[in-house]
Amino acid sequence: MSNEPRPFAIEILDTTLRDGAQGEGIAFSARDKLSVTETLDELGVAWIEAGNPGSNPKDLEFFRLAASLALRRAKLCAFGSTRKRGVKAAEDGQLQSLLSAETEGVAVFGKSWDLHVTQVLRVTEAENTAMIAETVGYLKDKGRIVIYDAEHFFDGWLANPGYALATLRSAWDAGADRIVLCDTNGGTFPEDIAAGAAAVREFLKLPADRAGALGIHTHNDCGLALANALCAVREGVRHIQGTLAGFGERCGNTALAALIPSLELKLKLRCLPEGNLVRLAELTRRVAEIANVSLNEDMPYVGLHAFSHKAGMHADGILKARRSFEHIDPAAVGNDRRFLISEVGGRSAIAERAKKLDPGITKDHPATLALAEKLKGLEASGWAFEGADASFELLVRRELGRYTPLFHLEAYRVMSEHPAGETIACSHAWVKVLVEGQTEIAAAEGDGPVNALDGALRRALTRFYPDLVQVRLEDYKVRVIDGKDATAARVRVLIESTDGRRSWNTLGVSADIIDASRAALVDSIEYKLIGDIERRYKAYL
Length: 541
Prior knowledge:
Largest sheet: 8 strands, parallel, barrel
Number of strands: 16
CATH class of the largest domain: Alpha Beta
Mean pLDDT: 88
CATH superfamily of the largest domain: Aldolase class I
CATH architecture of the largest domain: Alpha-Beta Barrel
Distance between the termini: 44 Å
Low-confidence stretches: 1-6
Strand order of the largest sheet: 1-2-3-4-5-6-7-8
Shape: elongated
Number of domains: 3
Number of helices: 17
Structural class: alpha/beta
Helix content: 25-40%
């Protein structure tokens, strides 16, 4: 058997730093862009479309800094348009800025839809095809790999197929290395994507050694970006553009984190270096974190919900035969299976979660039966543990007799002030805790009552547990359980905490929002302390 690596069947171009940056709420600094570039290179994509050096100083600065990056696989390409009308390519300032980026490849877009040619560019059809050909030829003469993006191709092909195809011929005959068919408005249906790609392949009569020159770029305005990209692949397209987490203009681009596993695991088309697929979930989350946005947890393959099981029948089926309710092994993409704890989850899900603390637990174990009954009562009162793994673990510990309180909150007081004539309110909290017979009292000021209570509680406990200085709240959610009781309604508080290495979720329920917050905060701190103690004990052994 040959030891040579199997060839890449699909060439991936990630445009998170260009098209993705056009998404609402996305703003990358030059340093952010460098971090995203290094992350995408770790994943192993072929191309990183990193921005338009002619559009803003930040992108120009990025390309200057990126020249010092030691990328292992990915190549950078700068992005821009064809030359302006009435200007020679060699005299076009925007093309000069593309060359100044000194990237191995350049991606240039041109018009394929006659509507854009005559009503947006306001040039003749002949002038547009000349702009395309001269731009591609000029950049090829400068030694660049040219990726030609046929903007609005599918709209143009449906409206005037002869002219849309003629624009591609201009780019191809001028030496373009890739011809990318763009569904720029995201409104094309899969059957038209497939027919359009087939028509292009037939029209250009791509030779066998250039079969991979055809590309696809889809947007998600009809929720079809992923399906459209897959249809194009089935028609022979081998260059795919998208953004890792699906960021992009309007409804976003093809989410590569959802597309790549389907190509690799379902169609057996290699996109990434061997072994890199298992890092997909981790690196997708890193890109979202750099962008300072929350990853869509419903995202296929890499989202938190992708392999979550709530129904008891599903949990029981998974434990007996994984394939019964999972289409792939979560570990293949670096994700995890989750059993959600609820009144419909069943004893199998409870037992599976409890096994992390006691491998001998089964669904018929007395502790499992007791927990199932306890959950029914708690959930009837508004508790919902499916989003609060840490609080559920503490519940299991109590039932198994493996829980020793590390502190006791003996008393607390929270006050909020709204000084007359002042626009800024202030909250104060006071707590009294007991740790191994020693009492500690502390107070703190905060932007709100929960912030003040959190600060006072951690200040009191830090004397005994210094590692708590690392803990901070990442998210805080409140939900009214039954609005019919108006302001007397019970509320559920869910908080997410982190110590910089890991994150965990806890909850509290009460008719008093401060008391519900107190319960969630106490669980959060106890979970952190118990985990740290057990890790140190295992390390000692």
